[in-house]
Amino acid sequence: MALHRGSPHPAASRRRANPLHALDGPAAGGELELPTHRLGRHPVPAETAYQLVHDELLLDGNARLNLATFVTTYMEPQARRLMAECAEKNMIDKDEYPQTAELERRCVSILADLWHAPEPAEAVGCSTTGSSEACMLGGLALKRRWAARRRSGAGVAPNLVMGANVQVCWEKFCNYFEVEPRLVPMEGDRFHLGAAEAVARVDEGTIGVVAILGSTFDGSYEPVAEIADALDRLQTESGLDVPIHVDGASGAMIAPFLDPDLVWDFRLPRVASINTSGHKYGLVYPGVGWALWRDRDALPAELVFNVNYLGGNMPTFALNFSRPGAEVVAQYFAFLRLGREGYRVVQQTARDVALRLAGQIAALGPFELVTRGDELPVFAFTTAAGAGSFDVYDVARRLRERGWLVPAYSFPDNRSDLSVLRVVVRNGFSRDLADLLVADLARLLPELEAQSHPLRAPEQPAAFHH
Ligand SMILES: *Cc1c(COP(=O)(O)O)cnc(C)c1O
Questions:
Q1: Which residues contact 145 (CB under 8 A, 6 or more apart)?
Q2: Count: domains in the chain
Q3: What is the whole-number distance in angstroms between the Cα of residue 457 and the centre of ligand 1?
Q4: Ligand 1: does its nearest atom lie under 6 Å from the Cβ of 216?
Q5: 325 and 385, same structural domain?
Q6: How many angstroms is it from 218 CA to the middle of ligand 1?
Q7: What gap in Å lies between CA 434 and CA 243, rounded to an integer?
Q8: Could you identify which of 28, 202, 277, 411 might form a hypothetical disulfide with 415, taking C-beta atoms 3.0 to 4.6 angstroms apart as the criterion?
């Protein structure tokens, strides 16, 4: 939980700089006690401060061995250079940085084209800090459109239909903006939203249905087209016209390149809006996301604010005001640098590594795959029925001793009996690294199998998919 409280023992965390710095005189920090939980009385030299912070961060895990995160951990040096050059640019200052604003507009057009907006020039969209903000904006548009449709019929509370596997941002949206979450539980081997189950929960209070292209729990795609079909039939029967928001945080940057025939995007007239995380398979460092609406009708005009832009007005829709511009510039760099073929090769490589690694893990014996990495390059696996001496939490803990971060967690209702490990393959996780992971797993197995029973770990935090 990252809501920080003040430290009760500030004196306990004083740090001493390297004694070599004392050779440069006391002002260089060698003799200073450096308080960490309140401001020091005096400045310290920039190099000393740099070294202290730099050294402390060595304790952070190694990003390349982190198979928990979906977020980009590798960019080319040219992208890093561009980002450093743009460090001071504020995205909201469209007037001062008109060309950064122009790159944002181009990125929106590129995504509108990639996601088959009927009239790419009519699609509206914006950058955000990530998918969470983009989902809030998508949800707000759904809620406002629903309220406008229902202006006459009072007394009905809004609800949003989605799978119990939604990312936590949707629960936040419902909490913060007072919408009832209607979570469809998992059942048997159905680990995400099904069309029939979604439609069964729709009523006149439903502002929309969220379909996830790429569930964080197991990497599977939800059947967006089937859900749209079922909602079309519902409209014919009942007159209820319920839009879909596609949460494509990961999948909206995978499917266009690897599954071009899968129809999940604006080709479906019922899809009103789509979000993605530029900092996941958009291949940009954190934090940038994107929200797009199929046309102006899908985004109520009263949610849009105008900021001054070159003496004119620039429409904006955002929760934040100031926000770094560097990530948006880096997104444009990635689009320009890779093109369609570049993205296809990068994503196909990730899928190939995921499929191969999943196969090797299944072949070890005591594991069963829940998914195999053929949708998102992400797969979940669990311990086979026969492997009674250890559980997924034991595996995660032992892998961590070798530096691998492979999270273990339980599924939501009604499959909370199922606990899994999950591997997220990203750009930069090579076949060679995957082979090292399999070798480590194989080496650990005899010890795990020699345990008399699983060493019950305290309940794991659910932060990996949340
Ligand atoms: C990661 C993720 C989010 C949240 O995205 P951020 O960019 O981390 O804010 C929302 N939905 C899904 C499906 C995700 O995978």
A1: 207, 243, 272, 298, 300
A2: 3
A3: 27
A4: yes
A5: no
A6: 14
A7: 41
A8: 411
* Spans of the chain below 50 pLDDT: 12, 29, 462-466
Give residue 281 CA to ligand 1 midpoint distance, Å: 11
Q: Do 389 and 438 have their domain in common?
A: yes
**Ligand 1 centroid distance, CA of 254 (Å):** 14
Element spanning 182, H or E? strand 180-184
User: Where does 115-184 have alpha helices with state H?
Assistant: 131-149, 168-176
Instruction: Kindly state if the Cβ of 250 falls inside 6 Å of ligand 1.
Output: yes
CA of 462 to the centre of ligand 1 (A): 14
Pair (162, 303) in one structural domain: yes
This model's pTM is above 0.90: yes
Q: Domain holding 129: CATH number?
A: 3.40.640.10
Of 297, 240, 237, the C-alpha closest to 272 is 297
Q: For residue 409, what is the enclosing H or E element?
A: strand 408-410
Is residue 297, in this structure, part of any structural domain at all? yes
- CATH number for the domain including 421? 3.90.1150.160
Taking the centre of ligand 1 as the mean of its atom positions, its distance from the CA of residue 277, in whole angstroms, is 7
Question: Residue 360: which domain range?
Answer: 348-449
Query: Which atom from ligand 1 is nearest to the alpha carbon of 250?
Result: 15
Ligand 1 atom with the smallest distance to the CA of 133 is 9
Measured from the Cα of 215, ligand 1's closest atom is: 13
Within a 10 A sphere around the Cβ of 200, how many other Cβ atoms?
A: 14
461: nearest Cα among 396, 399, 402: 396
Report pLDDT for 311.
Answer: 74
- Within-domain flag for 283: yes
**Ligand 1 within 6 A of 249 CB?**
yes
Same-domain check for residues 53 and 89? no
194-229 tens-digit pLDDT: 999 999 999 999 999 999 999 999 999 999 999 999
- C-beta of 275 in contact with ligand 1 (< 6 A): no
